């Protein structure tokens, strides 16, 4: 009996060694589009230097999402699995995870990656628990096939970790990896339908309320005007919206937790350790002191500008450009000047 187990173990170890391959949890958003974070995840997956399969869950249009994914011909995508079923409505983790587990049992991937999004952060730790392996979350660098970096202590230290698990389940911090670029030539990835169907009697999707805005999402905005406690009221946040609206399609508004907690703006604008992680081309911190929990969410921005009336404010330590002044004077002046440009 023990010889049988040993031989089975050896076969499975050899199989996983021979066919080391990666599965990327590709995310579909409205209209069958590919979520931008999937492109950052593909870059991280490509650094593992092994064949990549992708899986797309959705209720419809997974074929369209797959066709978009196929254009990333440089990423070594061999196969795209389509898990399309009405039962995936709302992409509930309870519906998706058992099907993902079936996929893993059939294919024995050595690495399974997803973006650090609500979807993947719900599904992948569940999958890790079912496979009895340790999930590795919010990875910022892939060192090799078993070693990764991630931030700890609110971004104050970088942890380099090594995992000995046979299946490595990883979420990727999107802002730490460049988005994959479309390649030339036609994509050769095969498309395959997944037969397993969801069977979820634990939870049910009821509805989703989405904040409608003309401005881009925080994650994809090129410019963010972010306001802190110093804005003093919801009405004063209009100063930031006025600025953002001078850059249509490019700029949006963010906030510190103090501003969100004070009710000056919606909580989905919060940036930081317990909010969103962003890395725009330009981040303008206005009346924000620069607490470590805030910096954890924006320090990868390409250019950081700080406007603060206190010259000793810690935000100036990470800013590329700083302006010491009262925001209630500076912002109207800045808006007027930009309008004339
Ligand atoms: P303050 O620290 O009060 O700073 C206000 C700044 O405005 C000051 O620097 C002041 O000089 C300046 N100012 C005042 N008046 C003017 C004026 N008229 N013109 C120009 N400047 C002016 N915070 C986050 O932001 N995101 C998070 O995700 C987050 N997560 C947290 C998680 C935990 C577990 C904890 C404990 C805290 C977290 N925080 C987070 C809170 C964080 O510690 C700070 O309290 C918060 O970031 C402070 O927000 P603020 O900079 O807007 O306010």
From TrEMBL:
Reported function: The electron transfer flavoprotein serves as a specific electron acceptor for several dehydrogenases, including five acyl-CoA dehydrogenases, glutaryl-CoA and sarcosine dehydrogenase. It transfers the electrons to the main mitochondrial respiratory chain via ETF-ubiquinone oxidoreductase (ETF dehydrogenase).
CDD domains: ETF_alpha
Domain Electron transfer flavoprotein alpha/beta-subunit N-terminal: start-end pairs: 22-209
Alphabetical GO biological process terms: fatty acid beta-oxidation using acyl-CoA dehydrogenase
Cofactor(s) the record lists: FAD
Complex formation: Heterodimer of an alpha and a beta subunit.
Name listed for the protein in its UniProt record: Electron transfer flavoprotein subunit alpha
Binding site for FAD: 229, 256-257, 270-274, 287-294, 308
Gene3D superfamilies: HUPs (3.40.50.620), TPP-binding domain (3.40.50.1220)
Record organism: Adineta ricciae (Rotifer)
């Amino acid at each position: 009996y023990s010889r049988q187990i040993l031989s089975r173990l050896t076969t499975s170890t050899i199989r996983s060694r021979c066919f080391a391959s990666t599965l990327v949890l590709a995310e579909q958003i409205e209209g069958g589009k590919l979520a931008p974070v999937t492109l950052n995840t593909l870059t991280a997956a490509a650094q593992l230097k092994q064949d990549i399969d992708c899986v797309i869950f959705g209720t419809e249009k997974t074929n369209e999402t797959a066709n978009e994914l196929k254009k990333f011909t440089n990423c070594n995508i061999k196969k795209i699995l389509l898990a399309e079923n009405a039962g995936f409505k709302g992409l509930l983790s309870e519906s998706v995870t058992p099907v993902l587990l079936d996929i893993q049992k059939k294919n024995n991937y050595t690495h399974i990656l997803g973006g650090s999004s609500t979807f993947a952060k719900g599904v992948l730790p569940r999958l890790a628990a079912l496979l009895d392996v340790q999930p590795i979350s919010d990875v910022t660098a892939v060192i090799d096939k078993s070693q990764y970096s991630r931030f700890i202590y609110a971004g104050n230290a970088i942890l380099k970790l090594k995992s000995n698990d046979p299946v490595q389940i990883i979420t990727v911090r999107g802002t730490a990896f460049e988005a994959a670029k479309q390649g030339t030539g036609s994509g050769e990835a095969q498309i395959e339908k997944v037969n397993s169907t969801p069977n979820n009697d634990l939870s049910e999707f009821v509805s989703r309320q989405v904040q409608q805005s003309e401005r881009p999402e925080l994650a994809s905005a090129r410019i963010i005007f972010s306001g802190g406690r110093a804005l003093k009221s919801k009405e004063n946040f209009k100063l930031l919206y006025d600025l953002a609206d001078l850059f249509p399609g490019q700029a949006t508004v963010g906030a510190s937790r103090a501003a969100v907690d004070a009710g000056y703006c919606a909580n989905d604008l919060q940036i930081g350790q317990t909010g969103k992680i962003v890395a725009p081309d330009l981040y303008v911190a206005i009346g924000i002191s620069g607490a470590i929990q805030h910096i954890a969410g924006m320090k990868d921005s390409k250019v950081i500008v700080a406007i603060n009336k206190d010259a000793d404010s810690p935000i100036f330590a990470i800013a590329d450009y700083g302006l010491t002044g009262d925001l209630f004077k500076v912002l109207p002046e800045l808006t007027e000047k930009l309008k004339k440009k």
